[in-house]
Every structure is written in C-alpha cells, then in structure tokens.
Specification:
elongated; Alpha-D-Glucose-1,6-Bisphosphate, Chain A, domain 4; Activator of Hsp90 ATPase AHSA1-like N-terminal domain-containing protein; Bactericidal permeability-increasing protein, domain 1; ASHA1/2-like_C; 6-stranded antiparallel β-sheet; START-like_dom_sf; Aha1; ATPase activator activity
Length: 335
Amino acid sequence: MSSMPLSTANWHWKNKNVTPWAKTWFEQELVSVSVKGDGDEVVSISSLRDMDGDVELGQRKSKLITIFDVKMDLGWSGTASDGTEVSGKLTIPEVSHENIVDKVSDLVYEWSLSTDSSPAVDALFALAKKRLPELLEAKFSEFPKAIIDRHGKDVYVSGDNSRAGTPGPSTPSSSGKATSATPSSAAASASAPVKKPESALSTTTVSVEASFMASADDLFSMLTDEKKIPAWSRNPAVSKAQPDTEYSLFGGGVKGKYISLTPGKEIKQTWALSSPTWPSGHYATLTAMLDQGSDSTVLKLKLEGVPTGMEEEITRNLEGYYIHGFKSIGLGASL
C-alpha cells in the first residue's frame, strides 16, 4: 500500500512512455488483419516494417489519458485470383489519439504495389485498398484500451493492491478532499493543501522547450484561445487572453492570471497547480516564449517560483501536458 493517501497519490500528473511495448503490440495485432475476396483471392497485413513516434499513458486527477502519435510503414501481401503472389507497402503518416479516439480527422493511407501489374494483381490491389482500412481502424480502436489495461496500474495507485483494473471516473471536489464514499480522517486531512508562509517558501526555476511545425502566431493562438486549447490539453479551458484576466487549463488542474500577452512572441501569466503538494495561495510565473524560424517555431516555457523539491515533478508536467500535448496533434518537429 502506498504511504500516500489515494486522493493525493492520484492527483499528480504522471506519464509513462510505452513506445517499445506499443510497437510490439502493433507487430502482433496488425498481422491478424486479413480479408478474402469473392473468389480465391486473399490479402492481409504481413508486417510492421517501421514505426516512428511516441506513445505514452498519462494520469491526472485519477483520469488515465492515452497520448500517442506515430507514423507506420506496413507490409501487405496476398494471393491474386490467378495464384500470383502479390506484395506492397502501406504508409499511414499519422495514427494518433486525435484520429482514433477524438475522430477529428481521418486516417490517411499511402499505398504502393511491388508486384508487376496484371488484371488479377490490380484486382487484389483494389481489394486491399477497399477493405483493409476498415479492418485496420477496428484494430486501432482497440489500442487505447490495451494501453490502459496493460499499463494503467503503473501510473494509477489503486486503493486495493490486489486489483490492477482500470479505475472508474473520479472528480475531486473543489475543497481538494477525496471523493471516496468512506475516506479516512487521515486521508481527508492529508489531501488538503499545505499552507506555507510566502516568506518561508524556497523556490527555483524550471524550463522546457521544443520545436513545432507551426507558425508563432498559430502556437500563440493555441496557447490562449479557449476554443483551441482543448485540442491539445484534452480538457475544457477558460481563457479570455487579456491582461489581468483569469484562466483555467486541464479542467481546473492549472489556474492563474494573464500578466501580459504579445501576439506571436510571448505570454506571461501567473501559474498555480491544483494539487495538495502545491503550497496554498502560492503562484509561480510562467513565461511562454515563441521564436519562429524558417520552417518551425521554438516554444520555450520558463516557470519561475517552483517550490524547491518539486522541480522534477513540474518539469515532467510541463513536458507531458504542454510539449507532448502539441506533439499529440501532429505538430512535433526535431530540434
């Protein structure tokens, strides 16, 4: 049993990279995708040739979140109606949470044929292009649940160590107390924010940065427009994007006020984490700096006023929920 109360342990942002496991899962599962034509022809996915990208499982306030954005190169093969062995390649540029779970865009399929063309070969190629996508998408739809079933126990602290199942939805109350039906007095007490005198609080600064395939103006808009923020944060947002107005991200997990906004250049705002470990009433200062290059924009996040001892946790939070949030919608680029 964790020494930390359940409500506290599951409040933190946690991420686990599961990319190697995901590649193995796709290698094993996608080769089961096969379709038979009206005659003797049959075609199937023969291999996962390459996979590029990241797959993670995140947890915030007892909610498990799948974060994935990968490019796949698949091999396909089959037998034409005249007995000819046929093969080719299929590239899917983006398999992500957005097009598998959120359905905000369609999957793109790029097909190629390695076998010399003939009427029978062309008919099999047409069968592959017509029938395999729907079967692949059915298999992809199983992927998010497979991630949670296999890795959920590693980022979620269960109240019963004998269970490794996926937790049900849970929403902490505004007081920060656990929503369990019978919380112990110790757990309820521990889940309340710890009040520290501001003068006694030792703080430091953490920074993260990444390059994205987007203009500085577009990134600025995605960071401040409450209609666009949910695309990468996967949660409701409140943001009027004016100095001295309050904002709320990640369903209330982060709150603060805007200090100044320079479109396409910089956003400065106060920043507080809604967590029992974050000192009550304390606000750090987050500065988002945008530097546009010829084909990408570097986003640097500098958070000043982080309580000493929380540097590693907050760095993971910034990388997991801001940087990987943008990567999950297909904006990632190499620095």
